[in-house]
Amino acid sequence: MASHGIRDRVAIVGMGCTRFGERWDKGLDDLIVEAAQDTFASAGVTKHDVDAFWIGTAQGGMSGITLARPLQVQSKPVTRVENYCATGSEALRAAAYAVASGAYDVAMAVGAEKVKDSGYQGLNAAAPPGDGTARTLTAAAMFSMVAPAYAAKYGVADDQLTDVLATISAKNHANGARNPRAQFRREVSKETICASPRVAGRLGVFDCAGVADGAAAAIVVRAEDALRYTDKPLYVKALSLAAGSGSGLIDPTYDYTHFPECEAAAADAYQQAGITDPRRQLAMAEVHDCFTPTELVLMEDLGFAERGSAWKEVLAGTFALDGELPVNPDGGLKSFGHPVGASGLRMMFECWLQLRGEATPERQLRTDRTLALTHNLGGYPGEMVSFVSVLGSELG
Amino acid sequence: MGVEAARLALRCRPSAEPGALWFATASPAYLDKTNATAIHRALRLAGDVPAFDFGGALRSGVGALLAALGGSGTELVVASDRRDGLPTGGDEAAGGDAAAALVVGEGTPSAPLLAEHLGGASATDEFVDRWRAPGDQRAKLWEERFGETRYLDLGADAWQRALKETGIEPGEVSAVAVTGMHGRAVKALTGRLGVTDDAAVDDLSGTVGQSGAAHPLLLLAAMLEAEAAGQASGSLPAGRVLALVHLADGADVVLLRTTDDLARWHPPRPVAEQVASGAEIDYGTFLAWRGMLTLEPPRRPGPERVSSTAAWRSEDWKFGFVGSRDRTSGAVHLPPARVSMQGDAVDDMDPIPMADAQGTVVTFTVDRMAYSPSPPVVFAVVDFEGGGRFPLELTDVDAERLAVGDRLEMTFRRLFTADGIHDYFWKGRPVRDVPTGGEG
């Protein structure tokens, strides 16, 4: 029983990411081709150089042919993976482990989702046939139960909580405004955020991530081969995945103020990467801000703030672009929307840009830290999967 | 509603083991498929207890009761009806939704008779006074003088023969409930029964409204409850004669005599109490509920039809709200599980029925985007007395007044209908029991 990780054994040597948004003129295949071509160019390879592929898509298609057909990859190992909102990250995890195992020299992870073809609001997962007793709440409603529970446990007054959540939303929109790939590229004032129509519980429209189409991809090779492809590779320090048992939904001890799966994934990732003080060691973090209370709680689950203090840290600007630990410098799900299969790789793409100094100047971080974290959660409070990666620009 | 009424009836008589379930309605949720089976499973009656529908006609409620009274053994008779009428019409104004359930049998020491069946009489005739084509929401009526005339003749005939058969004089009848969808006939017949002026009881048409096939049973339940309360307070003696007269495609008369044991019967939720605790809903909501107004649905896919096989596999859970409890840790699992969430026990759990457990709101939310026949969805995480937690939808609730810590009880509901298949499951509802002392 151990989680050894593959620290510094695999490197990302090329990445690509489409613009996220309402890509009416692009189908899933177009998005895949766009992200893949950018990634091939980034790594200086062609599809023929890639030994194995993983495509992460939640609902874009079944089987590896979802990727093999648009890229015209013939008779190679191509696998589709799905793990809720960690789907894109799972593609990278599979590719990285395949290379680390020695099975392949070059592997590719692609994440893609065409959400805006459904014609419906929000994300809509097709459930398998069931007995009709499963809840049918929207994700917004499930996560909306976190905010009052957190406020009650830590004595946050109602107007303070409103301010905290609006601060998170405004920060991510401000970051997204500085990112040409983001879906929403305008700053949004806290007044506008607070006045937005309610969706579920106290959550308004601006507390919720948007819905968008998009794709992102990465090419991974053995660390010792990395410099043959780029002089600025990102080394994989940690990849961690924790699936909950779903017992939080029926366990009377669960209080909706934290996500045990995220705590577990973070602890494992920090152990793999040798991180002891994430707040001071990480240059940045891309976290799964599907709803504003989610990001609030994650600051504690990921060890960026003491229990019960994240709301104060949010108000103090700790996680702003110029704060002590910038969180979602690319604008997050809030600005990008959430094409499920693509989001995990989109987060890694921001690490790729930031640690290589290639982000647009108005959001490029000035830091000597060399580690970045990405985090996904998929599911609901009480029943979720969580993924954490740590990437670094230096070996060791 | 039928499940709700039956649960109340059986709560009064926990030792009763019905040998059959007879369900009557003029507004069946299914045709061809039996509706009584869903009630059967929700009540968790034994598999060897048959469940039958008395379907379609307004007379089916009293018919099921008469069949049970004429049979042997213990039977559970449930009548439930939902009365529709077009907006602004008489049926809409006069109609009501209700259900009533009666346990009919010989009586046992632990479940003694509350009232003894003395006898009765029926009169039957074929004439078209009120009719409705299958699938129509609206009944049509012949001009009402014809029906009134027929019902007066039929009612008087059945009444006289019932008295003759039982040897009871009209003056001996202490309370009589006359009912039927033909209001003029009911009123006219009541005046011609020869009973004392104070014998006619409120037919609940001004409060509940006319609940069709359910109404005669509802009135009988209300009469028994009033007698029980009267006996318990000492204002009424035992041994009073009660009469039920129902006019639908004929006339049916049932005569009963109250027993001493009625004084010790404490119905958990008397009709009068329910009538008094009713809440108003606005007309638009009412019309939407009845399918008369189509509301803008969420811009999301509607619910998929329930899998028949999956529902059958989990029928104890879905219909009976039965979870499981780990024999080692005691952890309650809702829905039931094979592998425990605490410890490593596998297939080592006992079933734990939770439908009668009350719960407490841990946290809640209002979902303005999720599908519901009655949006918005009010949803709560609920911790149950005796252990167990389940997140569930609430009903009959004012979200503005809901608070963490509020008490909830479970109620059997239709969540949605897809492809004609109804999704029955349990919802939570704020507890509305008024303490009534012990329950018999």
Can you summarize this structure?
With 396 residues, chain A is an alpha/beta fold. Helix content of chain A is 34%, strand content 19%. The model of chain A has no long low-confidence stretch (mean pLDDT 96).
Tell me the strand percentage band of chain A. 15-25%
What form of chain A results from the Cα inertia axes? Answer: globular
User: Mind telling me which CATH architecture of the largest domain in chain A this is?
Assistant: 3-Layer(aba) Sandwich
Order of helices and strands of chain B: HEHEHEHEEEEHEHHEEHHHHEEEEEEEE
According to DSSP, the number of beta strands of chain B is: 18
pLDDT < 50 runs, ≥5 residues of chain A = none
Largest interface: A-B, 37 and 47 residues
Question: Overview of this structure, please?
Answer:
Chain A has 13 helices and eleven strands. Chain A has 396 residues and is of the alpha/beta class. Chain A has two domains: 10-121 and 213-233, 3-Layer(aba) Sandwich (Peroxisomal Thiolase, Chain A, domain 1), CATH 3.40.47; 139-203 and 236-392, Thiolase/Chalcone synthase (Peroxisomal Thiolase, Chain A, domain 1). In chain A, the strands form two sheets. A nine-stranded mixed sheet of chain A has the order 3-2-4-7-1-8-11-10-9, with helices on both faces. In chain A, strands 5-6 form a two-stranded antiparallel sheet. The radius of gyration of chain A is 19 Å and the shape is globular. By secondary structure, chain B is α+β, with helices and mostly antiparallel strands. Chain B folds into two domains: 2-286, Peroxisomal Thiolase, Chain A, domain 1 (3-Layer(aba) Sandwich), CATH 3.40.47; 297-320 and 355-430, Beta Barrel (OB fold (Dihydrolipoamide Acetyltransferase, E2P)). In chain B, a hairpin with a 5-residue loop joins β11 (322-326) and β12. In chain B, α5 (144-166) crosses α6. Chain B is globular and about 70 Å long. Chain B starts with a helix and ends in a 10-residue tail after the last strand. The A-B interface holds A 119-122, 124, 126-127, 129-133, 135-138, 140-142, 144-145, 148-149, 152, 198-201, 245, 247, 249-252, 254, 256, 382 and B 298-301, 303-304, 306-307, 309-311, 313-314, 317-318, 331-335, 341, 362-371, 377, 379, 381, 383, 387-393, 404, 415, 423-425.
